[in-house]
Amino acid sequence: MIDKTIDRSLRWLDDRLGIAKGGRTFLDKIFPDHWSFMLGEIALYSFVVLLATGVFVSLYYIPSAHEIVYHGSYIPLRGQRVSEAYASSVGLSFDVKSGLLMRQAHHWAANIFLGSIAVHMARVFFTGAFRKPREFNWIVGVSMLILGIVNGFLGYSLPDDLVSGTGIRIAYSIIESIPLVGSYLGTFLFGGNYPGNGIIIPRFYILHVLIVPLLIIGLLAAHLGLLVKQKHTQFGGKGKTEHNVVGTPMFPTFIAKTTGFLFMTTAVLFLLGGLAQINPIWQFGQYQPYQISYAVQPDWYMGWLDGALRIMPSWEWVGWGHTIALEVFLPAVIFPGLIFNIFIVWPFIESRHTKDLAYHNLLDRPRDRPLRTAVGVAMLTLLFMVFFASSDDVLANFFQVPLVAVLWFFRIAVVIAPVIAAVVAYKICNEMRAAEGVGKRKRPQIVTRSSTGEYSTTDAEPRPGDGVEELDAIPVPTYIDLVPPELATGVGVRRVMR
Amino acid sequence: MSDDAPRLEGPLPPAALDDPHLQPYAKHPERAQAVAAVAMVVGFLGFIGFGVAYWVGDSAQWEAVTLGGGLLALGFGVTAWGKYLMPQGPFEEERHEFHSTEAEREAMTAAVTERGGMVLRRRKLLGGLFALGSTAMGIVLLFPLLRSLGPKPGNTLFETNWTKNSQLVTVDGRPIHVDDLAVGGVLTVFPRGYTGSSQDQVILIRLAQLGPLDPPLVINPPGRTDWGVQGYVAYSKMCTHLGCPVGLYQEQTQQLVCPCHQSIFNVLSGAIPEFGPAPRPLPQLPLTADSAGNLRSQSGFNQAVGPGFWERP
Amino acid sequence: MRRLFRARYAAPAALVGCVAIVGLIAFSPSATLADAAPTTTLPVLTTTATTTTPIAQPTQSVSGALNYAAPSNQTGLFYAQLPQAFIAPGEALFAANCASCHGPAALGTGRAPNLQGLGAGTVDFWVSTGRMPLANSSVQATRKPPRFNRLQTLEIAAWVQSLTPGQGTQVPIVNTNNADLEAGNALFTLNCAACHTITGAGDALPGGAYAPSLHLATPVQAVEAIRSGPGNMPHFSVGNITNTEARDIAAYVDGVIQHQDNRGGFGLGGIGPVGEGFVALLIGVGALMLVCFWIGDRT
After folding, report:
1. Is residue A391 pLDDT above 60, yes or no?
2. Between chains, do B61 and C295 touch, taking CB under 8 Å as contact?
3. Could you give the percent of chain A with pLDDT greater than 90?
4. Closest residue of B to C210, CA-based?
5. pLDDT digits (tens, 9 = 90+) for C146-191
6. What is the pLDDT of residue B222?
7. Exposed site from A62, A294, A487, C129, fewest CB < 10 Å?
8. pTM for the whole thing?
9. What are the DSSP calls for B41-71, one per residue?
10. Percent of chain C with pLDDT over 90
11. Contacts of A79 in chain C (CB under 8 A)
12. Chain C nearest-CA residue for A272
């Protein structure tokens, strides 16, 4: 009965859209099962949660620097003159049911969105998944990372609280540091010298809720479209070649697992959203340009830029009647520009270096490409060092060491640690390659003692991945005979799996 | 292809139901089903719980536990269903090289070069004029896109509202008498009429009881010996690094510290930076006291306050 | 039973564990550091004070902090004249515990500073926060459980004050009942947050010093610190922060900073994005990676 209905509906659709062939191919599409291929899904589903919770909070947030008197339910603020943006953000937290949960889940989702992008990107890098033909998708991914960081900063700035306001002040000064045009860009963007004429909050708002998300959505569609068209990479192994994909089909297995994962990602974000407090703006108070709190850091994904600013020596260039604030321009503009450009051109640098122009659908084990692994480890170490440098004051307080010593440690470590890490990574790769079976799962053995006291060992029951008694991959049992027409004796429908 | 292909009488023979590829991953499917079912029931109860938590009270914790727990349990159930009870294969799919045939590629190139060349080579003038026109359009569109955003900086980066004889007031607009601060005291001040202004914020510190400035205590930069009064000194509160308010005063070491990036300024010698990324001393405001004993500025700042920018000499 | 511990269940079990731990922390009654604060010995002072001086009737405020009912005093803050009877026992306590470093007349030695003229409030701050007597010669004295009870502390303070009558910081009596929390909030943000952080958590300063956490400070200690500027802290005189304003700040520290409205969940130490980043990356991304590890193929 239900089958009849489905059949009728699909025919109705196919008459108009011609979806039968493409749709069926899509349902049969094979996805490799390796756990590390799901890291990007964390980012995808965090983005879904970002959109959903973002719609919720945008219904209550007022993007206005207009000053009003706070009359909400948080007593220590009552009577204070605050901006509408700040008042509405506190109101969203305290005076809208479920508002605090949604706002915090939104913020956690942003942190985890970018965190999972970083982890996903590291996986793609170390396994060489960016190689031909996937260079475009790598660039699309890096672009989304940049836009994600930008949008995270914009969103973080919207509540107009003391901590985020300090961030906007720093952003203004960074813009100001650009030679020739910096002061102009700053006053254009802010509607005057800092703090401007109040236009910056509405501008950040429209960028945050419309323009940047639209760009991300477009790139995301391209990212997934290219993934479908180019098919996912896979690790080598039994029956896996450059010319096939081995895994489970889109429908039903992959759909079920990925839907479950969507729910579980959402679950983690909402659990954090209500159990772990994030950005308690009511404690910070309204931003005023003459007020400041110690221990102010940006959100973690901006931390590496803040850290670079902290450890930079005071190299200002003055001459011919002009000033270049190199102590700002180098770490805050040139440094991230350089890093992102290295990311973008890396696939081309590598293929030029290896002179490898072939298609690659099988992934590398990181140890098999020691040079690339060493470069990646060095980059990660560099970024981690500047990242940790941004919490120098908190680290100094926590470990009770002098603040200046911590800064000097990072100034030196930023140069030396990546080199050491690269050398160590290179050596470890070579060691691992030299020793056969390193990192492979050992098959357990069962030791039995016989009645006569003799010991004997037998292999334990094989588990998936042990490489024994594994099935050969077969094509998904399709419902259509795909023998080429000239060889076909006929076409029919095959029925299985009820 | 199906329309032209000869049809076979009747359906194809079914794939074997006992094919190992079509078996669930779980050794005991009933047990896996039970686990998934329990999880889904827990999920259902979690969502009901969220409804109750929403209705009853205003606790983000209960909302998170019920909603998050429900999502977690339901997601676990669905995933377990997919992982343990659905066919695991392995299945394979062929990859097709997605580049086109050589003939197609050549035809594409030819379409561009031949047809395009035909047009462009014969009408170079038109092509050039079109390029010129679109470039001009791109450039002039930058004006509304960029120039309309805000005013030019003009002199605003150089100017503050401190002038000769500005009265120092607190953020509440209260004037400051020379007796108001104790030695080691610190206060954020503004010129009268401009309280709260970012560009005008000044940090006032009392270093000594008498003055202009206690000579053994303070190493005055040349020309600034009379810039303090009654042991008071005043510096711009905007950090010369990134403009954060330099609000952290360490009284014993007589240092001002920027809480943002830990630049350290020596208050005793014209706020020169001792450590950290700040490149320049905090500009100093020359002080005086009027006949009523209230603090005033001798003049404005002698340089631009705040971080560096291109036009700064 | 052994099946439960098989690898395939490890990841989800670990996830549930993580969530359970976070949940437990979030739901536990707010166990702030304040619970560990040493209780002041109220009864001793009550009996002594009421028999010898006309000033204050000690009362218990809701938060359990030491407060006095201030007589006909609208600002909620005034300074106590310590009883004459405190001076003699104070001298004995000073001679036994402090004189070895500060000298018998509190004039200071090569090891410790002159205390004359600092006033009873300064002495009360250093002794009641346990910073004096000094435990070791670190850059900065650290807060620890006080050596002396409330009465003994005030006796020492009274003796030091008696050396230079009227000079220095007095011991305040703080009534926070009618304090203006909004004013306290604004004043705290402008004057205190730059060092102690906006949540009062404290942070490291250059030179090996640090701005201490305010989570244990009593209103009396807060006002004493504002007035006397211990260590690297600036001195805030009455012309800078009025008595009413100091009372409001003390009330904000006592009422809001020490009882933060953490209705968003576990406060993560009140150190802002550093703590949040660690939670996002280690617990958030970490837990989700465990889930991936469970769902996906691990060969």
Report:
1. yes
2. no
3. 69
4. B250
5. 989 888 899 999 999 988 888 888 888 888 888 889 999 999 999 9
6. 75
7. A487
8. 0.88
9. HHHHHHHHHHHHHHHH---HHHHHHHHHHHH
10. 26
11. 182
12. C284
Q: Is A177 left (phi over 0), alpha (psi -120 to 50) or beta?
A: alpha
Give residue A428's pLDDT band: very low, low, confident or very high (50, 70, 90). Answer: very high
The reply to whether B100 touches chain A by the CB within 8 Å rule is no
Confidence of residue C69 (pLDDT cuts 50, 70, 90): very low
Report domain B155-313's class: mainly beta
Q: CA-CA distance, C126 to C147, in Å (whole number)?
A: 11
Q: Nearest-CA neighbor of B160 among B284, B63, B261? A: B284
- Cross-chain residue pair A292–C204, CB shorter than 8 Å: no
Length of chain B: 313
Question: How many domains does the structure of chain A reveal?
Answer: 1
Which residue from C207, C234, C265 is facing B249, i.e. has the nearest CB?
Answer: C234
Burial letters C166-196, b for 16+ CB under 10 A, else e: eebbbbbbbbbeebbbbbbbbbbbbbbbbbb
Q: Cβ–Cβ of C190/B186 closer than 8 Å?
A: no
Every domain of chain B and the residues it spans: 20-148, 155-313
Spatial separation of the C-alpha atoms in residues B145 and B287, rounded to whole Å = 45
Give a three-class secondary structure readout of B237-273: CECCCCCCECCEEECCCCEEECCCCCCEEEHHHCCEE
Interface partners of B (3+ CB pairs, < 8 Å)?
A, C
**Cα–Cα distance measured from residue B245 to residue B151, given in angstroms and rounded to the nearest whole number:** 25
Note whether B183 and B230 are within 8 A (CB).
Answer: no
Q: Which residues pair with B294 in a beta bridge?
A: B177
Which is it for the CA torsion C128, C132, C136, C137, positive or negative? Answer: positive
What's the token pair of residue C241? 């922060």
CA gap C257, C140 in Å, rounded: 23
Mean pLDDT across chain B, nearest whole number?
A: 87
Q: Could you tell me if C291 lies within 8 Å of chain A, comparing CB atoms?
A: yes
Sorted by where each begins, the domain ranges of chain C are 2-28+269-295, 71-257
Domain that holds residue A288: 32-336
Q: Has residue B47 got a pLDDT over 60?
A: yes
Closest C-alpha among B68, B245, C264, C188 to residue A279 = C264
Is the pLDDT at A491 greater than 50? The verdict is no
CATH architecture of C71-257: Orthogonal Bundle (1.10)
Nearest CA-CA distance, residue C119 and chain A, Å: 30
ipTM: 0.89
Using the predicted structure, report yes or no on whether residue A497 has a pLDDT greater than 60: no
Strand ranges of the sheet holding B168-169, from the earlier edge strand across to the other edge:
B168-169, B186-191, B202-206, B232-236
Q: Any idea what the CATH number is for the domain that residue A49 is in?
A: 1.20.810.10
List, in sequence order, every residue forming a beta bridge with B297; answer none if it has no partner.
B287
The amino acid occupying position C19 is: V
Please report the pLDDT score of residue B218 as a whole number: 66
CA dist., res. B178 & res. B296, Å (int): 10
Q: What is the pLDDT of residues A130-187, one digit of tens each?
A: 998 999 999 999 999 999 999 999 999 999 999 999 999 999 999 999 999 999 999 9
Whether the Cβ atoms of residue B185 and residue B236 lie closer than 8 Å to each other: no
- C210: closest chain A residue by CA: A397
Q: What pLDDT, on a 0 to 100 scale, did the predictor assign at position A186? A: 94
Q: Which tens digit of pLDDT belongs to each residue from A310-333?
A: 999 988 998 888 999 999 999 999
Residue to mutate among C198, C263, C278, C290, with most A CBs inside 10 A, is: C198
